[in-house]
Write a structure and sequence with these properties.
heterodimer; A: 468 residues; TIM Barrel; Rossmann fold; eight-stranded parallel β-sheet; 17 strands; B: alpha/beta; binds iron/sulfur cluster
Chain lengths: 468, 439
């Protein structure tokens, strides 16, 4: 965006402090515009009253993100990519997490196709209160046959609501796919130096977003993007080519770095979302594990460095899990709190016989333990000790988790040990070395739980209630 | 019919015309087409000739197009008035690409180089290492086009002075050496291509074996005998015992320029720093995901303990993928950017305890503890990739040295970081064919 202080945004607001946006003042609202947690449309008078129309339009232009936002798909499953304003996540946050697309192809048997699409759309991993999931299906034309491609696209649409990427360099094939799927707003892949006129015409005719592909040729890439945008095709995605190995990979990384830096620095002609195709790793590796590993490595590089959408092949859990987690790593808002409030939390419906567990107030640790317990139906008290938001192992090493801290945490929470029938504190396995100290400090009995809270339910079966 | 035409002749004809758009266009080769006689052509030859003729007419048509002649209309009418592509409703063809050049500037703010720190000493410098390792020296974020990275990333592999709990897929590799740190060290260098070895003196912890510092120092001597790469010496993490353990170790390693791990704000860092300076070693400055604490400790090491700038490496803490890697990444990235922009309390190379990735349950647990999850698949493939991605992520934040455990992780991480560094050649792959690839 072109402005970066609340004062600059404030100038365009009504200034009446009417409170309709849910904020107490226009200035408070303005600061949320700058941190992008609210939008200009959230100020009701600004959009409803005619006299503000001009200011509203100006404000929207000023607030538009440097990198254009492109929407693929429709309805609840629509996915936005791009929309970034910074080169480093700590400067604000990255917006619109990298969209992860997995391939199917038009020479698959129908049963295999349906099974694969289902595997892709069903994959999920629970993490800090929510599921990590995949996003899209990329349909590859291997046959080069328009009819086959259309039939495959149709089958994919019948099986899933995931948005699609239609992949072919043959305009007739893309057209056949669009005739089936255009209203689902798929992403076209791709216009290149040979077919760009026909593909541009398709993007215009069917009003869908389109990828421009110019392997390691940033002049051509920019030229295509600019040509498209100047002719009204603004939903453009850039593929500068993903060379999966050797010097080619280094060059690819630098192409991504250059494109994004230029875009954030204000070169509108190249300020579009970028696509990586880690799939190409499969062209460099024969055996499946090596290919999946290398594909995941390439996908991770471009999740970290500016890839907004990418196409992969492996759907093995050992590839999908790190891909999902590295994406979450990069797109988690660094402004969100690191800690939970130190307290004794009740999980389920604990009674006087339920265990009293200890963990830290590092949000990730706390939520991990909490979900391990609640999803397995364990009733207990869970104490979040103030360790300055440091995890158990590191806090024991660094002195932020000590017997005194545990005593203080229980006291500050007003927790009365006397109300427990067992008078036992269960320490995390990684804090075992604190056992003696905690016994001395609190006078309670101390048991050592497992090193990983995922094993708490099993541990409870064997060890709870404690032997007298 | 006999018709001879040389394409190269065309350039001569065109030369006399003042046509700007032809500048820089050369027609290569000397294509000569001689169609005569007729009757004697076999179908394959006729096809080949037809292909040639079509190619040439394309060339010529392109030239005509550049000269502004409406070639396409001509072709359309010659082919019976039917254009190749049906006209698109509501959209007319865009006639040509807008000419433009891509350009981007280098980062002018990155004006301060990162300090170089050399570990290990060869006989020339009074040590007995075969080689040294130099970390740091960067003038940009890693692998960036702004400035060449002077040194590649290095991996130091973990060795422990006693058997410790390890994930199954890690342990499998060390079953035969787990009771002998010297053999263990040899194995990681010889079999697993470790650049360096870290000997962790964990048994010195009073809560474990309370091995006396003097005895632990013997293990250090054994390891120095066993391998000729530079080494890192780690304590047990017990803040009361570590200074003494590291003092003894520093003493017996005199001349070898080891890295002492580590000085931190929660132990007597002065003693650790003095052990390093007295015996010519470097010191690892370890803080916990807090850039200001890192500045404070570095400042203390330099100002209060007189540790030379070329003897400080930072460990700003590594959290595993899924367990706070976002903090670790951003912390390192901020530290490196601050260094490049001139904060001289942060211009040091960095080290990562990448082994922490094995604390993530995804790397070692047989299956997900949560019933709602999709199947996690075989854990022997999950573990190494967890360590690889944790390390790779931090390498992109500027981390220089990786402390690691699993041989596969080490191999892949070295390959990927050296690929990005630019020292790995590979066969070129025609990625334009990816859509139709059979995989
Ligand atoms: S709704 Fe608009 S005018 Fe009212 S307080 Fe919010 S920003 Fe100000």
């Amino acid at each position: 965006m072109k402005i970066n202080s609340p004062l600059e945004a404030y100038k365009f607001l009504p200034g009446t402090n009417c409170g309709q946006c849910g904020e107490t003042s226009c200035m408070a609202f303005a600061s949320h515009l700058i941190d992008r947690s609210l939008q200009a449309t959230d100020c009701i008078p600004l959009i409803e009253e005619k006299k503000y129309k001009k200011k509203y339009d100006e404000l929207v232009t000023l607030l538009a993100p440097e990198i254009r936002e492109v929407v693929i798909g429709v309805g609840d499953n629509a996915i936005s990519i791009g929309g970034d304003d910074v080169l480093h996540r700590h400067k604000l946050t990255f917006f619109n997490k990298t969209a992860l697309a997995y391939d199917v192809w038009d020479t698959m048997e129908e049963a295999d196709l349906v099974e694969r699409v289902n595997k892709i759309q069903d994959f999920k991993k629970f993490y800090v209160g929510d599921y990590l999931t995949l996003d899209m299906i990329a349909v590859r034309s291997v046959s080069n046959d328009p009819e086959k491609f259309a039939a495959t696209v149709k089958k994919v649409m019948e099986t899933t609501d995931f948005p699609m990427v239609l992949c072919s360099f043959e305009p007739a094939v893309l057209r056949a796919g669009l005739e089936v799927a255009a209203e689902k707003r798929p992403l076209l892949y791709a216009a290149n130096k040979d077919n760009w006129q026909e593909v541009a015409a398709l993007a215009q005719e069917f009003n869908v977003p389109v990828t421009v592909f110019a392997p390691n040729d940033l002049d051509l890439l920019k030229s295509m993007a600019k040509t498209f945008a100047d002719n009204g095709i603004e939903d453009v995605v850039l593929d500068p080519g993903t060379f999966p190995t050797g010097k080619g990979l280094k060059t690819t990384l630098n192409n991504f770095l250059k494109i994004r830096r230029a875009g954030i620095n204000g070169d509108r002609d190249i300020a579009f979302p970028i696509m990586a195709v880690p799939f190409t790793a499969w062209m460099a590796h024969d055996d499946e594990v090596s290919a999946s590993y290398w594909e995941t490595v390439v996908a991770s590089i471009f999740t970290i460095k500016y890839g907004d959408i990418m196409i992969m092949h492996s759907i093995e859990p050992y590839a999908l899990m790190p891909q999902l987690h590295i994406r979450d790593t990069m797109y988690t808002d660094p402004r969100k709190p690191v800690t939970v409030d130190p307290a004794v939390y009740e999980i389920g419906s604990p009674t006087a016989d339920s265990p009293l567990l200890v963990t830290t107030n590092f949000a990730l640790t706390y939520y991990t333990v909490e979900s391990d317990l609640s999803s397995n139906g364990v009733d207990c008290y869970l104490t979040a000790i103030d360790t300055d938001g440091i995890g158990v192992e590191a806090a024991v090493a660094g002195g932020q988790l000590t017997a005194a801290k545990i005593k203080k945490g229980l006291d500050d929470a007003g927790f009365d040990m006397e109300k427990l029938t067992h008078k036992v504190i269960v320490l995390p396995g990684l804090a075992a070395r604190l056992q003696g100290d905690v016994e001395d400090e609190t006078g309670a009995g101390v048991m050592i739980g497992p090193a990983d809270s995922g094993r708490l339910p099993g541990w409870m079966e064997l060890n709870w209630p404690p032997q007298k | 019919m006999s018709n001879k035409m040389k394409l190269s002749g065309l350039t001569d004809i065109l030369k006399d015309l003042d046509v700007q758009s032809l500048e820089g266009v050369t027609i290569e080769g000397d294509i000569e087409l001689d169609i005569s006689g007729g009757g004697g052509l076999n179908p394959a030859m006729a096809y080949a000739l037809g292909h040639e003729a079509a190619q040439i007419s394309m060339h010529v048509a392109n030239i005509a197009r550049m000269l502004g002649y409406p070639v396409d209309q001509l072709f359309a009418s010659a082919m019976g008035g039917v254009p190749q592509q049906a006209p698109v409703a509501g959209a007319s063809r865009i006639p040509e690409l807008l000419p433009t050049k891509f350009d981007v500037s280098k980062m002018s703010e990155w004006a301060t180089p990162i300090q170089e720190v050399t570990l290990g000493a060869t006989s020339a410098d009074g040590g007995s290492r075969k080689n040294t390792v130099t970390l740091g020296g960067e003038n940009a974020l890693p692998y960036y086009f702004d400035a060449e990275m002077p040194h590649r990333n290095y991996v130091t592999m973990d060795v422990f002075d006693m058997p410790i709990g390890m994930a199954k897929s890690v342990k499998e590799n060390y079953g035969d050496v787990i009771n002998d740190p010297a053999d263990w060290a040899k194995k990681v260098v010889k079999d697993f291509n470790a650049d360096m070895v870290t000997i962790h003196l964990v048994s010195t912890d009073p809560l474990i074996n309370d091995t006396p510092a003097r005895e632990a120092a013997k293990v250090v001597e054994d390891v120095l005998q066993a391998v000729k790469v530079p080494i890192v010496i780690g304590g047990s993490g017990n803040p009361k015992k570590d200074p003494e353990v590291l003092e003894r170790a520093a003493e017996v390693a005199e001349g070898e320029r080891v890295l002492l791990a580590s000085a931190s704000l929660n132990l007597d860092y002065e003693r650790v720093a003095k052990a390093a300076t007295d015996h010519g070693h470097a010191v690892l400055s370890w803080t916990q995901l807090e850039i200001n604490a890192q500045k404070e400790l570095n400042r203390k090491l330099m100002k209060q303990c007189n540790v030379p700038r070329d003897s400080i490496v930072m460990d700003p803490t590594t959290a595993a993928l899924g367990y706070g890697l976002d903090y670790a990444y951003t912390n390192m990235e901020r530290i490196r950017l601050a260094g490049l922009m001139g904060d001289d309390e942060l211009t040091f190379p960095m080290s990562s305890g990448t082994t922490n990735a094995w604390g993530a349950r995804e790397s070692w647990m047989k299956e997900s503890p949560l019933k709602q999850d999709s199947d996690w698949g075989p854990r022997e493939y999950r573990g190494p990739i967890w360590e690889i991605i944790t390390g790779l992520t931090l390498s992109l934040a500027g981390n220089d040295m990786f402390m690691m455990m699993h041989p596969t992780s080490v191999q892949v991480l070295k390959e990927i970081t050296q690929t990005l560094y630019g020292s790995i050649e590979a066969e070129e792959i025609d990625i334009t064919k990816w859509i139709g690839a059979e995989v």
